[in-house]
Design goal:
This protein has about 230 residues and is an all-alpha fold. Helix content is about 65%, strand content about 5%. A two-stranded antiparallel sheet has the order 1-2. A hairpin with a 5-residue loop joins β1 and β2. α5 runs antiparallel to α6 (about 120-135).
Length: about 230
């Protein structure tokens, strides 16, 4: 089947699954739909340790993204992700806007203008997203932030990719993200608004880690074979 070399020097084996604009659209639509469904849950989590607006803000941002998707077509996946990031950056309030906006923009920048990408490129793009988030928020594992869902998710994907069918690797990614979000419950927050509460932040699941787990779940569904 041959290979294709991307601008960053990585090579895509054409025998592996190939993702495209439609894949990214499915991901964003699935994410927006689930964020809307879980809006009140996210807001309740944020009410305990934040400003009680995470669910509302994320839903507003993704509804704006979905409206833009309906008006655009024939857009390379990387460019589409950059547009998603820009919209989230300006339409999601609080710290989540810049963080999620940066994540999607970094993914898009990594993928560039190529019409397709494979699982290894997806992992590398997600790593670029995480690095953007960590650079902006300076959070590390255990700080009770979205990073606590992203790090285990990417670790699981890296461990499984190429060793098991892609669908299984994506399921491991989603499971790890959800487990990571759950593990924030006993943590004391060291970043963001929740950190002002000190020990009172213990016992509450982090809303940012939870919304990140929702995005990874949507990604798994979007990449499922059709």
């Amino acid at each position: 089947m041959g290979t294709r070399t991307r601008r960053d020097g990585t090579r895509l084996d054409r025998s592996t699954p190939s993702f495209d604009e439609a894949t990214v659209r499915r991901w964003v639509i699935a994410a927006g739909t689930e964020i809307a469904a879980q809006r009140d849950v996210l807001t309740q989590l944020d009410a305990a340790i934040g400003d009680a607006d995470h669910g509302v803000n994320m839903d507003r941002g993704f509804q704006a993204v979905l409206a833009q998707l309906a008006a655009s077509e024939d857009t390379p996946p990387g460019e589409l992700l950059r547009h998603v990031g820009a919209t989230l950056m300006f339409r999601v309030g609080g710290a989540a806007g810049p963080l999620y906006g940066t994540a999607f923009r970094e993914m898009g920048a990594f993928l560039g203008d190529a019409p397709t990408f494979g699982p290894p490129e997806l992992l590398a793009a997600l790593r670029a997203a995480l690095e953007g988030v960590r650079s902006l928020g300076a959070a590390v594992s255990g700080d009770k932030t979205m990073v606590d869902a992203w790090l285990p998710a990417l670790g699981a994907l890296d461990a499984q990719l190429g060793r098991v069918p892609t669908a299984e690797a994506m399921r491991a990614m989603r499971d790890a993200a959800e487990a990571g979000a759950f593990r924030t419950t006993p943590m004391q927050a060291r970043k963001g608004r929740a950190s002002y509460l000190g020990p009172r932040s213990v016992g509450h699941q982090d809303p940012g880690a939870t919304s990140s787990a929702i995005l990874f779940g949507a990604l798994e569904r979007a990449l499922a074979p059709t």
